[in-house]
UniProtKB/TrEMBL annotation:
Lineage: Bacteria, Bacillati, Bacillota, Clostridia, Eubacteriales
Pathway: Cofactor biosynthesis; Fe-Mo cofactor biosynthesis
InterPro entries xref list: Nase/OxRdtase_comp1, Nase_comp1_CS, NifE, NifE-like
Gene Ontology biological process terms, A to Z: protein-containing complex assembly
Protein name, entry field: Nitrogenase iron-molybdenum cofactor biosynthesis protein NifE
Matching SUPFAM superfamilies: Helical backbone' metal receptor
Amino acid sequence: MDVRATLKDHLIKERAASIITKGKQKSQLKCDTDSVAGCVSQRACVYCGARVVLNPVTDAIHLVHGPIGCASYTWDIRGSLSSGSELYRNSFSTDLKEQDVIFGGEKKLTRAIDELVEKYPSKVVFVYSTCIVGVIGDDLDAVCKDAASRHGIEVIPIQSSGFIGNKAAGYRAACDALLRLIKPVEGKLPPKAMSLNYLGDFNLAGEVWIIKNYLKQMGIDVNVAFTGDSSYDKLKKASSASLNIIQCAGSMIYLAEKMKDLYGIPYFNVSFLGLEDTAESLRKIASHFGDAETIIRAEEIIEEEVSKVRDKIEWYRQRLQGKKAAVYVGGGFKAISLIKQFKEIGIDVVMIGTQTGRKEEYETINELVDEGTVILDDANPSELERFMTEKGANLLVGGVKERPLAYKLGVAFIDHNHDRKHPLSGFVGAVNFAKEVYSTLCSPVWKYL
Ligand code: SF4
């Protein structure tokens, strides 16, 4: 008996409701649930979800209460850039060992906070709990409260033990921490004041700055970006903006909802990935403010920027036409933009999945893809391998955990999530994306496999 085949079939069967093929099944895709035990999900843990959202707060001390592996796994993981402090690029850890697990880690945590605050003056410390802290039951809230009153700064516990849910629970824990920082401001701006918060951009390779520049040209000020290139002082005044726009809905819609309830700030989703979505997002923002001059300026910027990149995109499209892509990314909104962006350069998406996509996002994905495309939520490596092979994908777009899988299969790969050196947002990012797709897909290396 082929044990491997039996095991693989069994895993697929257990997860049948989380995988559909467009045109073959009419049922709703099962999503936003915990991973199937033993299925080796590609999803990151709760702690990782919280860390990736909060880490770009540049002048905060980020202290991971747990074994060293949790801190090193997420150390400077995304390539977020800062225009000020570089403190966030450290990955401080209490480095819990066997003895701490037996006798408790609270004293070690207290000492670590004291030492860090003395060495690195900061107004806020984020303390992340990890799996083992959830198991041994250290009282993070009490330790942080004591430390806050001792040092006169904010010490915020993040309840993010890896096993207490899925990555989306980490996003919520991070948003709750951010909400603790935001305070009502005096002299709030009028409802249509040209100042907005930009949520769900982590300033990978300086992407926040590109979008800020477009908005500035339209006469709109970015009050604070969550959390790319943000700081304690900027976050404090987040409630003064008149609008929240959200790029990464998976991680930030919870915060936007809360800010709407608490501070009356409306929100909507945007996407600055690809020419079509970038242009549409600028139009949407301009029309929200409703000012004729802003609307005209948005059209001028779109025309100006598209004319700079149109020929370049066309050059890549002619060379990439007919290739097939597989996509496996964190959130649904990015997946939706990637389908459109691949269409712009002549590539079909034949398999697409996310770690934390929501029902409405999967509905949009289903509308956008062609018949026969496999759509899957919270996949494992075995499923990715099976469907990429079955569908003949030439390229996989994913994150750090998907890269080895693609290379083992002899498939080109693009990391859309971590440690990027060039921006993929805005009009300039659309060209960078096309260039990267071309470089990896058309590399001579694939001939030698
Ligand atoms: S919190 Fe748990 S699952 Fe997450 S990295 Fe640490 S040990 Fe692994």
